[in-house]
Amino acid sequence: MRTLRTTALSAVAATAVTASMLAGGSSPAVAAPSPDLSITNVTAHLQQLQNIATANGGNRATGRPGYKASLDWVKAKLDAVGYTTTVQSFSTSSGTSYNLIADWPGGDPEHVVMTGAHLDSVSAGPGINDNGTGSAAILEAALAWAGSGNTSRNHLRFAWWGAEEQGLLGSNKYMSLLPTADKDRIDLYLNFDMVGSPNPGYFVYDDNAVGNFARDAMTSYYTSKGIPWEYIDVQGRSDHASFRSYGIATTGMYSGGETTKTSAQAQKWGGTAGSAFDPCYHRSCDTISNINSTALDRNIDMIGHLVWLYADKDFGTTTPPTTPPAGGNLLANPGFESGAVSWAGTSGPITSNTGRPARTGSWKAWLGGNGTTSSENVSQQVTIPSTATAASLGYWIRTDTAETGSTAYDTLKVQVVSGTTTTTLRTFSNVGTSATYAQFTHSLLAWKGQTVTVKFQMNEDSSLQTSFVLDDTSVTTS
Q1: Domain boundaries, the chain
Q2: With a threshold of 0.70, does the pTM exceed it?
C-alpha cells in the first residue's frame, strides 16, 4: 500500500444486514457454499514470495529482479490450473514493470467480477504483509475456484498489479488502455492490500457509494463471524481508485499499516494499543515473520466468500455509467482527489503535501518547486466528440517563485499532443507569478473527432525554485 496521505476512520457498531443486502438487492444463485480457504496454502505462497525476495537482493520492488520473479511464479501457478493469463508491461522511473491478468474461462463476458492486489514491494524490504498477503490470498482464491468444479454466472478475472507503490501505476495503466466497452463490462472490483498485519484491525473500504452493496456484504460477513470492523476512507491510496474513478463499484479490506492502534481498537480487536498496526510497514522487517496468522486466516475466508458470492450474483443488464453526459467533464479524476489515478506522467507531482494548498479538496498537481534542473509533467488522454460544437480545456493555477527579474528561467507549458504534433496553448513562467489561484480556458474545437493528450509540462533550471500548482481541470464539450 502507498504511504498514508489522508485517512479518515469512523468506528461503526456492527449490525447484521439481510441476505438480499449481501447480494446487492437480489438473490444470487450461489453454485456452492463459500470456501474455507487454506491458511496452510496461503502461508506457503508467502514463503515462496519471501524466498524470491531473499534470492533477489531482499525485495520484490518494481524494476528489480525480485518483482519479475514473483510475477513469473504466480503466472505459472495460474497457467497450471487453466487460467488464461496476460502480462502487460509498462515503463516506470524504476524500469519496466508488469501487470498480470488472469481470466477464468466461462461466465457471462458482459458481467465481469474482478479481484485484485498489488504484487510489488518497496525497495526497502520483501513486502510480505504489504502486499504479499493480498497477492497470496487472491492467488489461493483463484486456485480454489479452479479446483472447485463450480460454474459461475459472471466472468471471473483476477489481477496482480505492478508499481502500486509508485502511485498505482499498474492499475492506472490497465484502466487507461482498457476500451470503454470493456470498462462498462466490469460490475465489481474487489481490492485487497495488506490483510495479515501483525497488530491487526479490520477496516472495510467506504469511499465509493456505487460499491456499497459489496461493502455491506463484507461487513455482514464479519458480523456473522463475530469479528468487529470499522469503515475506512482510503481515498486514492490503493488500486481500487483506478476503477472507482471510472464509476465502477469497488470495495476492499485493509488490516492496518503505519498508523497507531488506539486503546478502543485494542479493546475491540486485541493487540497492542499505542503501536502501529504494522510496525514493519515499508521496512526491511516486513518478512514472513511479520504476519498475524489469525487475521490472515479470517480474511482469506472473507475473500473466498465474496468471490463465490459475486461469481453468481445476477447483475441484470445495467452497468455503471462510465461516459459523462453531454456537457460533463471528459477528464477522469479532474481534481486529483484520487491521487494519480487516470493521470500519466512523472511520478510524484500529484500530491496532498500541505506545502502548497489545493484550490479545492486536499490533492493537486504540484509541478516544480525543486530548485534544481528538473522536468515534470502530468497528462491525460481524451477524445473530443466529432459532433462537438464547442470544446474547452479549463484549469486553475497558482504560482510562486524564488527567482527575480524578467528572465523566464522556469516554465510550465499547457499543451495538446495529437500524434507527433505538440501544440502549446499557453506558457507560464517565474515572471509574473501569482500565489492566488486563477482560472484559464482554451478552445479544443480544432481537435474535434480526435483522441488527444492534454499535457502540463514543467521545466525548471538549476537554481531557485518556481512552483506551478494545478487543480480542478476540465475538458467540456457541447
Answers
A1: 8-311, 344-477
A2: no
